[in-house]
Design a protein that fits this description.
It contains 15 helices and 9 strands. By secondary structure, it is α+β, with helices and mostly antiparallel strands. It has 2 domains: 228 residues, Orthogonal Bundle (MetI-like fold); 130 residues, no CATH class. The longest helix is centred in the N-terminal third of the chain and has 40 residues. It comes from Streptomyces pratisoli.
């Protein structure tokens, strides 16, 4: 007997999703593809311009200058043995401590003050305008402003003008005495007669080295003054330019065409002590009256021949870093002011007014309320500026002259100088770049986290 099998019904399988879900998934997949297409160029640029250079620099820092021999951490060890690199680290530290602090403080003060002026928008625009100037142009501007020659540098022109207004300068910085004409030069730059003189004598003190065109206004001929005789208790004389325009004349003798040297200090010295002083007249004449009998020396003090005040050496080894920081402040003060001003405009006015109604003065309101409420924006501005000053290169490279470039160098300029500016050691330069990246990353992470917290 044959068994009969009953066919089993086919399995129903998993439940099919609703028909509406498939179009939704396709739409989501399509949006992801579109987003990827738009993001892909940015990712490619980011990889080509940021990720790849960073990875390449990290790898290159483990090789020697030629890039053929692996040296491990040798470049990093050399980096901290090199005096120039240590100076760059020191200068970078000065930048990080000084520049962001001053900028944040200036920005805060200006943001508060701007609120109290009528033309606030124009004032903000004026302070923000330097941000539109490139660092290259700003460096050239301040390189010219810091010129040591007062005829070129505007800062030294102002300094010299103020100095000369309170302390006169010498009219005869180039004057000197002829050798063998009765005057000897002392170690301090003064001139004195070689022979002793007494009351009743008349002396002629001839100098050279002064161009006739550079004589003070009102200078007159010295011939008649030299011809006059001194009185019994009077020691007289004349200081003159021992040079006749057009040539001729006799050295050591006052000729008719020779001019006196006015406004020159003269001293009568006895036993090493100054007993009388006088100032030459327009014809160069002078006189000491009521002198006691005895021997004297007539002296022309060193102040008569002092070099004119040339101002401040802004770009010298001692001041070059503060001078460059000053240029940086000029550029970025408007940035700090605008950001802090935006935070200041969002402060609750009722809190400030309540404090004033409770008797707080403006300084107390500023210190106890405004600054604490602005602490988040002040922190963001400060950290942003820290990141920026760590990367400063243009101003240092352009403003600092070649002889003091090493005194002003920071990590960014040292990295360039070591790699391309004559050092030709890209292994050490890459190590400096990695160090700079490691120093910048903590500040960047802090700023990003702060920004995310403010958005949540």
């Amino acid at each position: 007997m044959t068994a009969v099998t009953t066919p089993t019904a086919p399995s129903a399988g998993p439940p099919r999703p609703p028909a509406a879900a498939n179009p939704r998934r396709r739409a989501q997949r399509r949006r992801r593809v579109v987003a990827l297409v738009f993001v892909l160029p940015a990712l490619l640029l980011l990889g080509a311009l940021v990720v790849y250079p960073v990875l390449f620099s990290v790898g290159r820092s483990f090789f020697d200058a030629s890039g053929t021999r692996f040296v491990g951490g040798g470049n990093y060890a050399e980096m901290f043995r090199d005096p120039a690199t240590l100076k760059a680290v020191r200068n970078s530290t000065i930048w990080v401590v000084v520049a962001p602090t001053l900028l944040t403080g200036l920005g805060l003060i200006l943001a508060v003050l701007v609120e109290k002026v009528r033309w606030a928008t124009a004032f903000k625009l004026l302070l923000f305008m330097p941000m539109a100037v490139s660092f290259l142009a700003a460096g050239i501007i301040f390189r010219l402003a810091y010129e040591e020659d007062p005829d070129k540098g505007v800062l030294n022109a102002a300094v010299v003008g103020v100095h000369d207004a309170f302390k006169g300068s010498s009219s005869y910085p180039t004057a000197r005495a002829r050798d063998g004409q009765g005057l000897t030069k002392a170690a301090d730059g003064s001139y004195a007669t070689t022979a002793a003189v007494s009351p009743g004598d008349a002396v002629t003190l001839g100098l050279v080295g002064v161009k006739p065109a550079e004589l003070p206004a009102g200078a007159g001929p010295a011939y008649e003054a030299a011809a006059r005789k001194a009185g019994g208790d009077e020691l007289a004389g004349v200081v003159y330019l021992d040079f006749a325009p057009g040539g001729g004349g006799e050295q050591g003798k006052v000729d008719r065409a020779e001019s006196g040297l006015p406004k020159m200090a003269v001293e009568a010295v006895r036993d090493g002590r100054t007993v009388a002083t006088a100032t030459t007249a327009s014809d160069g004449s002078f006189a000491f009256r009521d002198l006691d009998p005895g021997s004297y020396t007539v002296r022309l003090p060193a102040g008569n021949f002092a070099q004119p005040y040339e101002g401040v050496s802004w770009l010298g080894p001692a001041l070059v870093t503060p001078a460059i920081i000053g240029a940086y402040l000029w550029i970025w003060t408007g940035f700090a002011m605008v950001l802090i001003g935006a935070g200041l405009s969002s402060l609750p006015r009722d809190t400030l007014e309540a404090a004033r109604m409770d008797g707080a003065n403006e300084w107390q309101v500023f210190r106890r309320i405004t600054v604490p409420l602005l602490a988040p924006i002040l922190t963001v501005v400060f950290v942003t500026l820290v990141i920026n000053v760590m990367k400063v290169f243009d101003l240092v490279y352009i403003i600092a002259p070649g002889p003091v470039q090493e005194d002003a160098t920071v990590l960014a300029t040292q990295m360039w100088l070591v790699s391309f500016g004559g050092g030709n050691n890209q292994g050490l330069g890459s190590a400096l770049g990695v160090l700079l990246l490691l120093l910048v990353i903590p500040a960047m992470v802090f700023n990003v986290r702060r920004f995310r917290r403010s958005q949540s």
